[in-house]
UniProtKB/TrEMBL annotation:
Organism of derivation: Mythimna separata (Oriental armyworm)
Signal peptide: 1-21
Name used for this protein in its record: Uncharacterized protein
Signal is among the record's keywords: yes
Gene3D superfamilies associated with the record: 3.30.60.30
Top-level taxon in the UniProt lineage: Eukaryota
Entry keyword set: Signal
């Protein structure tokens, strides 16, 4: 009987410790991001334009098209933004509205 109580208590404590460790990690990620701040100005200076259109998205979920990756770096540098390259499908609405002018 005592063994069962000790065993059950230890399982409950282990589960509580597991949940608490996840809470600490999430709070740590919120206050101390794992990704370092990227120096987009330096990357823009070293980049060669290839004029391959890309889609990028910021942390708020706003997506937009750029002429190429260098254009993305320059925009982030000039406007102090953090747009990241994402799949082209994310900018599907922008692509459709841009091509509507060519259909007429």
């Amino acid at each position: 009987m005592i063994f069962r109580k000790v065993f059950t208590s230890s399982i409950i404590l282990m589960l509580a410790a597991e949940v608490w460790s996840h809470v600490e990690i999430e709070a740590e990620d919120y206050f101390f991001p794992l990704e370092p701040v990227i120096n987009f100005c330096k990357m823009a200076d070293q980049c060669q334009h290839d004029f391959v259109p890309i889609c990028a998205q910021d942390s708020l979920g706003l997506a937009r098209m750029f002429n190429d990756i260098c254009d993305l770096y320059e925009f982030n540098c000039d406007y102090k933004k953090q747009y990241q390259h994402v799949k082209i499908d994310t900018c599907k609405f922008e692509i459709e509205t841009a091509t509507e002018g060519f259909k007429s």
